[in-house]
């Protein structure tokens, strides 16, 4: 038996843990640069604020209903997610972390799913203060659908492919099924497959012909035949990208170099965290539409002699690339760096030249990582990253990093 644990309105819920006064109030969390609503409380959903709505389009609602508008605090959400997944891994032997706020669990078929679901919900609430919806099913697809049902019912739900649950599946739009994207949803509806039940009763072979083997698998899964096993070991990442838009266009080369150093610093940190090295870097920048007829992608690809995850090396190449493609006549709206051709850092490389120099660089990274892990990212960073962060994206209404920065600890006073 599978279970899908999904945190409700995750980013908003993380904010509420530290600001309980926001309970029962309409809240939205905005994307980076304070652009669009990416998480909404139930109260905000009821006001008709759609997912992804640009802030400027919903200003009237924000004002009229006193909606609390928060900038994204990814440091907080990432840390809360890590805590939740750690708890799940302690509570269940088989866990697949599916996304920042969702995980699949696998249980013995004999489990009392109601008792286990309620226990997990309560335990997560007690440990991290986050409300979750839990769905159980005989396949991953059914468990995911059951979690959708659980969200509206408020308690754990269960689905198998038997006729006992046909009513639930008849009420479930086909677009809610895991793996059915917008395009397939549209085609399905045109062909009269409106609900999960319609797809369950469709002929798998003709579905395969019309769509793909993936959709055929969904039909089997809806019928209770498990085709998607739990992925217990996450695939190593094939590429890592760090990119941000600027709060306003930048035409100063030094600022661009500071920005790319900052992203290179984060990239190197992520590579080391994943125990990976990169052999190829791709550095790019986009100018604003106002300079020339269209945006142009300025880019450089750097193939390194040796795979690396060293901060200083990555920053050096990234800054050189910016130096090369920088055009003083243009304003840049965005800059980014991507590590491609990733290698396993735990496999020893052929004997390196300049062994001593490399090991000193490694030591510096090690010290930086341990300090930054303990006191918050960017506590110690290379000088190349610069002091000022004016150019960084706007997060005007960001709450403190309560759980990842000692300076932001919540103060409690007894009266
Ligand atoms: Mg969720």
Descriptive terms for the model:
3 domains, 415 residues, single chain, 14 helices, globular, Alpha-Beta Plaits, MutS, DNA mismatch repair protein, domain I, Dna Ligase, domain 1, binds magnesium ion, alpha+beta
Count of the separate structural domains = 3
Amount of helix: 25-40%
Label the overall shape.
globular
* Structure annotation, total helices: 14
Number of strands: 12
The CATH H-level homologous superfamily of the largest domain: Reverse transcriptase/Diguanylate cyclase domain
Small-molecule binders here are:
magnesium ion
Q: Which blocks of ≥5 consecutive residues have pLDDT under 50? A: none
Q: pLDDT average, as an integer? A: 89
In spatial order, strands of the major sheet run: 5-6-1-7-8
Kindly report the CATH topology of the largest domain: Alpha-Beta Plaits
First-to-last CA distance: 50 Å
Biggest sheet overview:
5 strands, mixed
> Which architecture of the largest domain would the CATH scheme give at its second level?
2-Layer Sandwich
| Structural class by helix and strand composition | alpha+beta
Order of helices and strands: EHEEHHEHEEHEHEHHHHHEHEEHEH
Strand percentage lies at 15-25%
């Amino acid at each position: 038996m599978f279970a899908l644990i999904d945190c409700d309105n995750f980013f908003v819920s993380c904010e509420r843990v530290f600001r309980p006064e926001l309970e029962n109030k309409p809240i939205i969390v905005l994307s980076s640069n304070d652009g669009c609503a990416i998480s909404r409380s139930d109260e905000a959903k009821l006001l008709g604020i759609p997912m992804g709505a640009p802030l400027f389009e919903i200003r009237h609602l924000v004002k009229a209903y006193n909606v609390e508008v928060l900038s994204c605090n990814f440091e907080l959400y990432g840390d809360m997610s890590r805590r939740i997944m750690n708890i799940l891994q302690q509570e269940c032997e088989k866990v697949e972390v599916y996304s920042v706020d969702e995980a699949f669990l696998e249980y013995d078929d004999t489990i009392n799913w109601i008792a286990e679901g309620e226990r997990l919900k309560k335990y997560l609430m007690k440990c991290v203060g986050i409300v979750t919806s839990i769905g159980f099913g005989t396949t991953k697809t059914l468990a995911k659908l059951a979690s959708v049902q659980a969200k509206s019912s408020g308690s754990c739900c269960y689905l198998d492919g038997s006729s006992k649950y046909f009513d639930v599946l008849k009420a479930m739009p086909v677009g809610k099924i895991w793996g059915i994207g917008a395009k397939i949803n549209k085609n399905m509806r045109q062909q009269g497959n409106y609900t999960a039940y319609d797809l369950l009763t469709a002929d798998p072979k003709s579905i395969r012909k019309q769509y793909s083997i993936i959709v055929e698998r969904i039909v089997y899964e809806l019928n209770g035949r498990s085709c998607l096993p739990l992925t217990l070991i996450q695939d190593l990442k094939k590429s890592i990208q760090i990119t941000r838009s600027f709060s306003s266009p930048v035409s100063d080369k030094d600022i661009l170099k500071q920005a790319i150093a900052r992203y290179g610093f984060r990239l190197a940190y992520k590579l080391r965290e994943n125990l990976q090295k990169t052999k190829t870097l791709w550095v790019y920048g986009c100018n604003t539409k106002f300079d020339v007829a269209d945006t142009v992608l300025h880019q450089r690809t750097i193939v390194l002699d040796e795979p690396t995850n060293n901060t200083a090396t990555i920053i050096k190449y990234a800054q050189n690339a910016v130096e090369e493609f920088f055009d003083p006549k243009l304003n840049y709206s965005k800059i980014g760096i991507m590590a491609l051709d990733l290698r396993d850092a735990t496999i020893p490389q052929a004997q390196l030249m300049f062994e001593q120099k490399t090991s000193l660089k490694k030591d510096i990274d090690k010290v930086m990582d341990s300090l930054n892990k303990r006191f918050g990212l960017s506590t110690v960073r290379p000088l190349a990253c610069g002091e000022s962060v004016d150019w960084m994206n706007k997060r005007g209404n960001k709450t403190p990093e309560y759980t990842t920065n000692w300076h932001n600890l919540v103060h409690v006073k007894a009266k």
